[in-house]
Amino acid sequence: MPLRRITAKLLKTRASVSFFRTRPLVTQVSDKESERHSTKQTHFGYQTVDEEEKWKKVHEVFETVAEKYDLMNDAMSFGIHRLWKDIFMARLAPTHGTKLLDMAGGTGDITFRYINYLKNLNPPPEDKKSSVTVCDINQAMLDVGKVRAEKQGYTWDRCGVSVEWVCGDAEQLQLPDDTFTAYTIAFGIRNCTHVDRVLEEAYRVLAPGGRFMCLEFSHIPNDALQWVYDQYSFQVIPVLGQLIAGQWRPYQYLVESIRQFPNQEKFKSMIEDAGFRQVTYENLTFGTCAIHSGFKI
Predict the structure, then answer these.
(1) Type and span of the H or E element at 291
(2) Under a CB-based contact definition with an 8 Å cutoff, are residues 188 and 211 in contact?
(3) Could you read off the pLDDT of 107-119 as tens digits, one per residue?
(4) Residues within the annotated binding site?
(5) pTM given for the model
(6) Residue 244's domain is classified under what CATH number?
(7) Distances (CA, A) of 128 to 116, 125, 161
């Protein structure tokens, strides 16, 4: 009997030791699983990806299409994007002495319109020096813009406006507070991972009284028109991308990213949440795109 009791005690002790030895292993596995699932995710078109992966994918998209970017815009919109940008600049209505930050401005479309608008005003007073900082996260897009600026004469000695080209991230700008009198971003904010951070940075770098303006693809409120637009977007635009730029995937992403972007009212609320006041928006071409405007007051 004593031998049986001793054996039973040993078995209980072994089971207890075994249990406590295996518990840390289970905890470690759970921690790893938890860490893996806690990685924040976002959308890349209709794909779900890790947040840190999105900017790399967006960077690759624009790296591959930089040379044909403007040509594709013409083909996809039948040239209407030029009219949208003209209206956008007319709504901004810059004056001499404006300090503009043209965010996601790579190829220079908005910057060149800004300079042309100033040229059409009366000659500037000597104390009113206008400037523009063209900022884009993709150096390939900036390189295209610089070449265009040289060819078309958008340089200080030929246009009288200081133009600076900066490679930077809209979510964490390496620019000082309260610097610019105007901030524009055209067809770029939907490609950012954290739109709220972009808006907060825009607010930070604008001087008091400065104006934020965004031109972006949006949502058509009419269901029938939206259906027609969807058919064109998904069936035609990727094919055009393959024919003109030799790439269809970047343009498939373009179409999907538009559908994922907040509608006009939701985006208006996001701009207000960043601190801007007197926020308004204007639909262009039935709501295909929209201009949002707000002030730092």
Answers:
(1) strand 289-295
(2) no
(3) 899 999 999 999 9
(4) 107, 136, 169-170
(5) 0.79
(6) 3.40.50.150
(7) 16, 5, 10
